[in-house]
Design a protein that fits this description.
By secondary structure, the chain is mainly alpha-helical. 71% of the residues lie in helices and 0% in strands.
Length: 292
């Protein structure tokens, strides 16, 4: 079937537009890497573009010796591991029963509206802080993972994907004596790889990039996750608040090379994980967003 000229022009515009955005992202990433590997003189003179000028690894050498940075880094790793385990467990166990029809689960609509409303509105930051303080969870990893244990958007995405699975498969499994948990783990989840990978990517990136809750619920420096640490050091440039008082170190940290080095190291885990998941991403989003 031949495409019309307007359709061809539209496709050409889309390819050029999206290609331009991708090119800008790549160039910006190259610029950040170049700054982290350049000397101070070239950076101050604004001579660094896409390639390092006066190549040196001083920023990375200093960063490897910064104990607070690595402490924050491993707190974020721990947060991602716990957060992914909790989020994925809750999302799957909530989405599966909600994917049933009303005749199979009589209170389905009530729970759907309950989760939908909680996804739109929250109790607010102050009640959350008071609650976590009352439970003695401040400055712990649980203050970072429990408040976001049930991401409603991911629940909706997954339950809509579950509803696309042919019900004849589940009926056949039920006739063979399978219970609900057997149907979930032996039939539904193996067929749901795209949406699981998509939700997994959302969860990993969400936990890894989150910084605001770290500032709110961590009142000691040693409890900061990585992004909260970077927000304090790189954005606000508040070195004393993270225990850096050496004038020579502060001089190096105030340089863009030190800031960009920390940003790059903070990006590495997501860059490693993304290529293994991205091939499922579009499929999971499209199928999980369509309601039968």
């Amino acid at each position: 079937m031949r495409r019309s000229i307007p359709k061809k022009l539209f496709d050409l515009f889309n390819h050029l537009f999206l290609g331009g955005i991708a090119l800008i992202c790549v160039l910006l990433f190259m610029h950040i890497i170049a700054i982290s590997l350049s000397n101070n003189t070239a950076i101050v003179a604004n001579e660094v573009k896409l390639f390092p000028v006066g190549f040196n690894l001083k920023a990375y050498e200093l960063l490897l010796k910064e104990s607070r940075f690595w402490n924050a880094f491993f707190i974020s790793i721990k947060r991602v591991v716990l957060g992914v385990a909790i989020n994925m467990s809750m999302v799957i166990l909530i989405a599966y029963p909600l994917s049933k029809y009303k005749k199979e689960f009589r209170l389905r609509n009530f729970y759907m509206w309950f989760f939908f409303i909680t996804g739109l509105f929250s109790g607010g930051i102050i009640p959350m802080f008071v609650l976590l303080n009352s439970l003695h969870l401040l400055n712990t990893i649980w203050a970072l993972v429990l408040p976001t244990a049930v991401p409603v958007f991911n629940v909706i995405l997954m339950l809509n994907f579950f509803r696309q699975i042919p019900k004849e498969l589940l009926e056949a499994a039920e006739m063979d004596g399978c219970g609900e948990f057997q149907k979930l783990f032996k039939i539904v989840l193996p067929l749901s790889t795209p949406v699981i990978a998509t939700v997994l990517l959302f969860t990993i990136v969400g936990h890894w990039n989150s910084w605001f809750d770290g500032l709110l619920f961590s009142t000691t420096l040693d409890a900061y996750p990585l992004q909260s640490y970077l927000q304090t050091v790189v954005i606000k440039m508040d070195f004393s608040s993270v225990g850096i008082t050496d004038p020579e170190v502060i001089t190096l940290l105030s340089n863009k090379s030190m800031k960009t080095a920390q940003i790059i190291i903070g990006m590495i885990p997501v860059l490693i994980i993304y290529p293994f998941i991205q091939r499922y991403f579009i499929t999971g989003i499209v199928l999980g967003s369509v309601k039968e």
